[in-house]
Design a protein that fits this description.
single chain; 346 residues; alpha/beta; Rossmann fold; eight-stranded mixed sheet
Amino acid sequence: MIAVTEHMAVTKRHSSFYLAAGPVDGPLMIFTHGWPELSISWRHQLRCFGAMGFRAVAPDMRGYGRSSVYSTHADYGQQHIVVDMIELLDSLGRDRAVWVGHDWGSPVAWNVASHHPDRCHAVASLCVPYAALDNGLDAAIALVDRSIYPEAEFPAGQWEYMRFYEGNFAKACATFDADPYLMVKAAFRKGNPAGLGKPSATAMVRRNGGWFGGADRAPDIPRDGDVVTEEELRAYASALQRNGFFGPDSWYMNHAANAAYAATAKDGGRLSMPVLFLAALYDYTCESVSSRLADPMRGLCADLTEDILACGHWMAQEKPAEVNAALAKWLATRVPEVWPKPKRPA
C-alpha cells in the first residue's frame, strides 16, 4: 500500500501540518477538510491519487490537529485561511494545484480559485456549492427551500444551527468539549434516504436550545462502521480533546467578514478553470439536488461538471470509491494537462 507521510509547512505567521502521498514531483492535488475533521478525512483519496502518480496533500486546517490554533473568532475568517493555503502551496514549491474541498474546506477551495486563479489548475467541491456559504450566511439563507422550511418556523432554514453559534457560542463549544469522542461518534454517520424532503436536524438546533436536543453533551450511540473505524474515531477525538472546539466552531463566526472577502474576488467571482461539484443526495443540510443552493454556482462557472452521489454529508469517507472515480474521470476528461505522465524506463 502506498505510504502516507507526515510533514510541517512553517512560516512566520502560521504552521500547517499535512499528510502527503505519491511522488514528490507528481501533479499536485490539495484536499481541504471541514468541521470537525482532520487531514485524515481524505485518507482514501490520498492513497488513491498518490498511487495514480499525483502528489496528494491534505493539511490539518487552521484550528485543527497539529496546525496553528488561534484565540479569537476573527482569526478564523476565510481571508486568513486562504493565505495559509497559499503559503502551503509555496512551501511545496509549486505555482498551482488542483484544489478539492469538503464542508468548510469547500469555501476555502472556492476562495483560492476566485481570489487566486493563477494558483489553481482546477477546483472541486464535495457537498458545498460555490457562491453560497463562501458568500456569507445571508447568501445561503436566501436560497433556502421554503417548501420544507417555512420562514415563520425556520427563519434561517437548515442553517438555524449557524444562528445558534452566533447567539450561544460558549454553550455550543461546551456541549462538544464535554466529550469529543461521543461527539464525533454521533456526527460521522452515513446518509439516510428516509430524510428526503424533510427538515434537516440542523434546523432544530436553535429551537431546541442547542445540539442533541439541548443536552449538555453528545449521546452515546453506536459507531457507524460504514464511515469510520474505531482507530480513526479515536484520532479525531484525540485532536479535538487536545485543541478544543473554540477554533473549529469559530469558523462559523465570520459570515460578515467572509462575505466582504468574497466581494473582492477576481472577475466578479467568475471561475474560468474546470470546476467539479459533487452533490450528496442524502445531505439534508447542504441540500443541493432539489433546492436552489447550487444555482448561483451555475451562473459563475464557465466549465462546470456536476454529479450526484447517493450518500450523506461525509461523502469522501462514506463512498470513497465513488468519490475517487468521479474525481479521476473529471481530471482525465476536463483537466488532462495535469494527468500524471507515465514514467519512461531508464
